[in-house]
Amino acid sequence: MSTDEQRAGVDLTNLDQELTENSGATKRDLVDYLDAVADRMLPVLADRPLTVLRALRGRAPFMQKNVPKYTPDWVRTVGIWAEASKREIHYALCDDRRTLLWLANQRAIEYHPALGLSDNIYRPTHLVLDLDPPTDADFSAVVVVAHLVRQALTDSGLSGAVKTSGSRGVHIFVPIDDNAPVDDVAAATRAMAARTAALDPSIATTAFIVEDRAGKVFVDATRAGGATVAAAYSPRLRAGMPVSFPVSWSDLDRVQPADFTVRTAVDALAGRDPWADEMPAPQRLPEDLIAQGHTIPVAMVAAMHEGKRRARERREQ
Prior knowledge:
Helix content is about 30%, strand content about 20%. The chain is of the alpha+beta class and about 325 residues long. A 6-stranded mixed sheet has the order 11-12-8-10-9-13. Strands 4-3-7 form a 3-stranded antiparallel sheet. A two-stranded antiparallel ribbon has the order 1-2. A hairpin with a 7-residue loop joins strand 3 (about 50-55) and strand 4. Helix 4 crosses helix 5 (about 180-200). It is globular and about 60 Å long. The N and C termini lie far apart (about 60 Å).
């Protein structure tokens, strides 16, 4: 395999190949973009077990947790036991530009770090709400609900930062201190979603089952524990190669996800780091928020039981 160029000691190859048939971007576009935002993106990725979405030629895109056997020795990794598969997973830790460029050369397009750090992947450093619009809704519907989240946070004495997901929704991150155990963080996330939906139940819902959402924006509270979320500044494998882009609350009404791509996002940054600029200091979760959350069933468990109940009813008809 021929080397097109070298950066930070990493051989970069086949830079003029298209990433995918419909991406509208080349591998060079990906590498150049990630290199340009490395100083902003690395603090978001550092010391967090990393899952990436890779797009190899001739293969369907796939999520990769375990680093391949040919990973260089200088790529820092961490082994974490996966109870579901009964094996240890060796995650990459993308702590430096060299590692980021190596991942880009491996055609790693999306970067999904854990919400916890390598010493405890299950202890989130942020409370996260993921807003998912119904299929036929435009971005403005998500923006309205994002402002409801902000109001619910304010009413609870909290604040957070917002970014486009790089797809059709938005992510809201609330940095938290290390006082609350993981179960309390998950409970607080459920409560914050419920408080958001209660502000206007005609447009927002916490219903985990899609057919129960009735055309409303889903306030997803399941990003807790060992979950991952697309990182700020991460490209997304969509047409045009959009990126997950941080915006100020005051600008949220004036943007569209397609405004920020691997070819346009660097200029849109204008030398700033909006994710760092907009992120508040870590906050303590209110006790009443945690207590409320512990009264709310875990969404996926509740949905599983509800699905079984509905299936049983259909069989009995």
